[in-house]
Amino acid sequence: MTKGTRSEEPAAAACGAGGHVGPGGRAVAVDAAATDANLRRLRRIEGQVRGLQKMIEEERYCADILTQIASVHEALRGVGRELMRNHLKHCASTAIRSGGENADAMYDELLDLMYRHVR
């Protein structure tokens, strides 16, 4: 993140493959198995959300709906954990090892990601 207010976008860090990282960037090093697992999880979550819509349309018991919402939240957190694992394994570790501005930008990016995930 650049110096200044917290509302500024984090500085882009160089990824392990030398590509642009940050808003609008593209991951270059992603494990194929992780991609497949995350897509399966997201499809399952999509089905859960459709189920929630149906529960609301049917005016189901609020506590049952809230329980299902908590389940969707946890499933999304699981996808987030896997994405963070991939980011740390590939982009972050390489940028940090390279040192200099890339490492500093990656430290800032990781701190920003951690604070956003804690909320």
Could you explain the architecture of this structure?
The chain is mainly α and 119 residues long. It is 69% helix and 0% strand. It has 3 helices and no strands. The chain has helices at residues 32-57, 62-98, 100-118. The two termini are 19 Å apart. The model is unreliable at 1-11 (pLDDT under 50).
Please identify the oligomeric state. single chain
Largest sheet: none
Task: Briefly note the structural class of the backbone.
Answer: mainly alpha
- Counted beta strands: 0
Keywords:
mainly alpha; single chain; about 120 residues; about 70% helix
Please provide a brief summary of the model.
The chain has 119 residues and is mainly alpha-helical. The chain is 69% helix and 0% strand. Residues 1-11 have low confidence and may be disordered.
